[in-house]
Write a structure and sequence with these properties.
Elements: H1 8-14, H2 16-27, E1 28-29, E2 34-35, E3 51-55, H3 57-74, E4 78-82, H4 83-89, E5 98-103, H5 109-120, E6 124-129, H6 135-139, E7 142-145, H7 158-177, H8 183-204, H9 207-217, E8 222-227, H10 231-246, E9 249-254, E10 272-275, H11 282-294, E11 299-304, H12 305-310, E12 316-321, H13 329-348
Parallel strand pairs: 3-4, 3-5, 5-6, 6-7, 8-9, 8-10, 10-11, 11-12
Antiparallel strand pairs: 1-2
Helix pairs in contact: 2-7, 2-8, 3-7, 3-10, 4-5, 7-8, 7-13, 8-13, 9-13, 10-13
Bound molecules: 5-amino-5-deoxy-1-O-phosphono-D-mannitol.
Enzyme class: transferase
GO molecular function, one term: glutamine-fructose-6-phosphate transaminase (isomerizing) activity
Protein name: Glutamine--fructose-6-phosphate aminotransferase [isomerizing]
Length: about 375
């Protein structure tokens, strides 16, 4: 049931404050302001020397964001991998390593094969899945469920942000167990997480501005997405979302890689979407943006009030998002990224919920 929405994707984008809130309530104890996982982990994060995260598509990009969180908050080295590469590369795992798998459907063939491989290597297996009865859930040692509810649109939206919520909670729990985070740090981070649903709702109110922008984007043949830190995997997600439903070619790049190649593409015909909350790498991203502007590129900057005030560049459209704790921005910035892809696809007249050549669940490799 699409309720009053034109597409499932629109409904699912708008459901995010609610379902991310449900997911949060499953992983955070509001009274004590502590992360409280709904299951007992069969390992101690203190003993984990390495984590590998494996998934496909958008789930892989949620894992890529989580890599930054685990490394920053828990100081655990994380390898992020695409399931089809991981399984055939036969990546060495050590007994007792933690292997995390992320899948909305829990049925993705390559992710399942990667899970079976990791099990065979003696790793602890933990999966973040939306369908608790799925094969990946059944075969994993530990299951952390996302409470996104059924996701019908082929383009993953609410499953992605719920995956991020689970992974953020897990990273905080890991940091706490490993002594990298104090009680005070944890409280602060939990406060940041508790705010997310409200901030996502605020981000949804900028939809009319994005709808207008989408009309310009729909005239382009190529779009470049840039970001640094956790905004880098979100840039990849923005590009994936746009190409999958609007069929416009898009690429995501780490902003710092610009001058190692993609800057050659910049002209007035290729919009550049820059995802840059005012965080510790903001200034670096602004200098990349200046490089784009100097070459006649048209920039769409997604930032907050502080970022908008500091980034004084011509040919700039600014999308201003609410101020928030820097660590968890991807969950909120995902909203304009998804809306931009959605409205562009609507302008293009594509089959938004069932884009050509794609299946919701990829059960063959
Ligand atoms: O069900 P899964 O999360 O395992 O699916 C993984 C990918 O196939 C999926 O995220 C795909 O990339 C989406 N269509 C992206 O919007």
């Amino acid at each position: 049931d699409k309720a009053n929405y034109r597409h499932f994707m629109a409904k699912e984008i708008h459901e995010q404050p609610e379902v991310v809130g449900h997911t949060l309530a499953r992983y955070i104890d509001m009274a004590s302001e502590r992360v409280m996982l709904p299951v007992t982990l069969p390992f101690d994060f203190k003993d984990i020397q390495r984590v590998s995260i494996t998934a496909c598509g958008t789930a892989n990009l949620a894992g890529y964001v989580a890599k930054y969180w685990f490394e920053r908050l828990a100081r655990i080295p994380v390898e992020i991998d695409i399931a089809s590469e991981f399984r055939y590369r036969e990546a060495p795992l050590r007994k007792g390593d933690l292997a995390i798998f992320i899948s909305q459907s829990g049925e993705t063939a390559d992710t399942l094969a990667a899970l079976r491989y990791a099990k065979g290597e003696g790793a602890h297996t933990l999966s973040v899945v939306n369908v608790p009865t799925s094969t990946i859930a059944r075969e994993s040692e530990t299951v952390l469920q996302t409470l996104a509810g059924p996701e019908i649109g082929v383009a993953s939206t609410k499953a992605f942000t719920c995956q991020l919520m689970v992974l953020a909670s897990l990273a905080v729990a890991a940091g706490k167990t490993r002594g990298e985070l104090s009680d005070e740090d944890e409280t602060k981070l939990v406060h940041g997480l508790v705010e997310i649903p409200r901030l996502m709702a605020a981000a949804l109110t900028i939809e009319p501005q994005i709808e207008k922008l989408a009309r310009d984007i729909s005239k382009s043949k190529d779009v470049l997405y840039l970001g640094r830190g956790t905004s880098y995997p979100l840039a990849l997600e923005g590009a994936l979302k746009l190409k999958e439903i609007s069929y416009i070619h898009a690429e995501g790049y780490a902003a710092g890689e610009l001058k190692h190649g993609p800057i050659a593409l910049i002209d007035e015909n290729m919009p550049v979407v820059v995802i840059a909350p005012h965080d510790r790498v903001f200034e670096k991203t602004v200098s990349n943006m200046q490089e784009v502007a100097a070459r006649g590129g048209n920039i769409i900057l997604m930032t907050d009030a502080k970022g908008a005030a500091e980034a004084t560049i011509e040919s700039l459209v600014t999308i201003v998002l609410p101020d928030m704790a820097a660590t968890f921005t991807p969950m909120v910035y995902a909203v304009p990224v998804q809306l931009l892809a959605y409205h562009t696809a609507v302008v293009m007249g594509t089959d938004v919920d069932q884009p050509r050549n794609l299946a919701k669940s990829v059960t063959v490799e």
